Structure formats: C-alpha cells, structure tokens
Amino acid sequence: MNAATEAPKSGLDIIKWIAVFAILTLLVVANYIFEFSTLERAIGLLVMIPLAGFVAVQTQKGHEFLTFAKEAKLEVRKVVWPTRAETNQTTIIVAVVTLIMAVILYLLDMALLKIVSFLTGLGI
Questions:
Q1: Where are the alpha helices (DSSP H) in 3-83?
Q2: 3 Cα distance to chain centroid
Q3: DSSP readout, 100-121?
Q4: What is the value of pTM for the model shown?
Q5: Which of the four, 26, 50, 67, 84, has the lowest number of CB atoms within 10 Å?
Q6: Residue from 3, 28, 20, 102 nearest 59 by CA
C-alpha cells in the first residue's frame, strides 16, 4: 500500500465507533434484560440501527463505505443480465455435463474396484 493514499485517522473517529458499538450493545442488552413487546422491539430497531448507521457514516471509513456502496449500485445498473432462455440453456448444459461426469466417475470407480479385487483376490 502506498502510505500517501491512506487518510490520516481522526481521534474523533474512534469516539464515533465507540458510540456506534455502545448504541448497538445497548439495543441488544435492553432486548435481553427488559421484556419489551414486539412493537417496542421493532420501534427500538427502527430508531437505534439507523442512529448507529448515521454515526458510523460520519467516520472516515463509514464515508468510504457509503461512497463504495453508491458506486457499486451504479455498476450493478451497467450489468447485462442474461435472458430467461440463456439462463435455462446454461442450466441444462450444467446439468447434462454433471450427469455425464457422474457416469464417467461411476464407471471409473467400478473399473478400479474390479482391478483391485482381481489383484488382491478378495472378490469384492
């Protein structure tokens, strides 16, 4: 890695990551200690997880991840996906080749078994 390309770490980033860890830990611990209803648990998840995500995005690594995710989304739009017919043809080809290889390996196994049986005289 080139040292010049790495961003300097901020002391605040460590505090922010500790806050993210604390928020998520609080959510898990509160879920186990207190007997919340399903609605209260859902509300807690819908509030605390986005809060932890918001704090995480404020860090250098979180910002880099968000940028990466946006770029990945753009790249997925550029992908040319196969048609249903192409997918079916490929699936059939894979199944046939797998079947042929299974038969070849079975025949090879039987031949080797006969050879070993003949050489050892066990008559298996």
A1: 11-33, 38-57, 60-78
A2: 29
A3: HHHHHHHHHHHHHHHHHHHHHT
A4: 0.53
A5: 84
A6: 20
Per-residue tens of pLDDT for the chain, all 124 residues: 454 455 556 778 899 999 999 999 998 898 888 888 889 888 988 999 999 999 999 999 999 999 999 999 999 999 998 999 999 999 999 999 999 999 999 999 999 999 999 988 876 6
Q: What's the chain's Rg over C-alpha atoms?
A: 29
Nearest to 65 by CA among 76, 56, 78, 52: 56
Q: C-alpha distances in angstroms, 75 versus 57, 72, 79, 97? A: 21, 5, 7, 32
Please return the burial class of 59, using the count of CB atoms within 10 Å of its CB with bins 0-12, 13-18 and 19+.
Answer: buried
Residue carrying structure tokens 């807690």: 44
CA pair distance 54, 51, nearest whole angstrom:
5
Q: Which residue has the tokens 């043809």?
A: 89
Query: Are 30 and 54 contacting, i.e. CB atoms less than 8 angstroms apart?
Result: no
